[in-house]
C-alpha cells in the first residue's frame, strides 16, 4: 500500500515539480484527513521537507502541499523519548513542529532518511536527539526495510534469554 502511495505522490506531486521523492511517512492530521511528511530533493539538489494533505474530491485523489521547509533550516529532530516505543517527535526549524507518525518505526525511518540526505547533500551537523542509536544508524542489522519484524525478533531473542536464565537452577 505504501509503495502505491509513494508512486502516486512521486507521479502527481513531485514529478511535475522536478523533484525526487526519497521518503514519506503518514503523520496525524486534523480530523479524518490523511497527511504525509515527505523528504524530496530538488533539481538544484536542495533537500525539501514538506507536509502533504491527501484530499478526496468527488472520486479524484488530490495531494496538496500545506507546509514546506528546507533541510538546511532544520536545527534538530527530537524523538521525545528514546526508551519508549512512541510515534511522537519534534522538528525544530524557526518554530517547533510537534508531529505524530503512524508508528515508531516510521518515525525512525524518516529520521534515518533525513540523516542520510544530510550526509549526501549538506554535510552539516544535524542534531538528532532522543532516538535509540541502534535503530538510527544504517550500519545496524536492525535498520533494514523489515524494521518491525527485526525489532520483534530482537524482543523475542531477549525474552528467550530471560526464559533460559529463569529455568537455570541456582546452586
Quick take:
By secondary structure, the chain is an alpha+beta fold.
Q: What share of residues is helical?
A: 25-40%
Shape: globular
Between the first and last Cα atoms, what is the distance in angstroms? 55 Å
Structural class computed from helices and strand pairing: alpha+beta
Question: What are the key terms here?
Answer:
single chain; 171 residues; alpha+beta; 4-stranded antiparallel sheet; 4-stranded mixed sheet; globular
Task: Summarize the structure in words.
The protein is α+β, with helices and mostly antiparallel strands and 171 residues long. It contains four helices and eight strands. The protein starts with a helix and ends with a helix. The mean pLDDT is 87.
Task: Please describe the topology of this protein.
Elements (H helix, E strand, L loop, with lengths): L1 H13 L5 E8 L6 E8 L5 E11 L2 E11 L5 E3 L9 E5 L3 E5 L3 H19 L4 E3 L3 H4 L10 H21 L4
Parallel strand pairs: 5-8
Antiparallel strand pairs: 1-2, 2-3, 3-4, 5-6, 6-7
Amino acid at each position: 500500500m505504501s509503495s502505491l502511495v509513494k508512486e502516486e505522490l512521486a507521479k502527481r506531486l513531485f514529478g511535475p515539480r522536478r523533484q525526487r521523492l526519497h521518503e514519506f511517512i503518514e503523520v496525524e492530521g486534523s480530523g479524518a484527513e490523511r497527511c504525509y511528511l515527505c523528504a524530496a530533493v530538488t533539481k538544484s539538489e536542495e533537500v525539501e521537507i514538506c507536509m502533504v494533505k491527501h484530499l478526496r474530491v468527488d472520486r479524484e485523489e488530490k495531494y496538496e502541499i500545506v507546509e514546506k521547509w528546507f533541510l538546511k533550516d532544520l536545527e534538530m529532530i527530537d524523538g521525545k523519548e528514546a526508551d519508549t516505543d512512541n510515534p511522537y517527535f519534534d522538528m525544530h526549524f524557526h518554530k517547533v513542529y510537534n508531529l505524530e507518525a503512524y508508528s515508531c518505526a516510521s518515525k525512525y525511518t524518516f529520521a534515518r532518511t533525513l540523516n542520510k540526505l544530510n550526509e549526501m547533500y549538506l554535510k552539516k551537523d544535524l542534531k538528532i536527539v532522543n532516538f535509540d542509536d541502534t535503530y538510527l544508524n544504517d550500519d545496524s542489522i536492525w535498520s533494514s526495510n523489515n524494521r518491525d519484524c527485526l525489532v520483534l525478533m530482537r524482543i523475542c531473542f531477549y525474552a528467550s534469554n530471560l526464559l533460559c536464565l529463569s529455568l537455570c537452577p541456582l546452586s
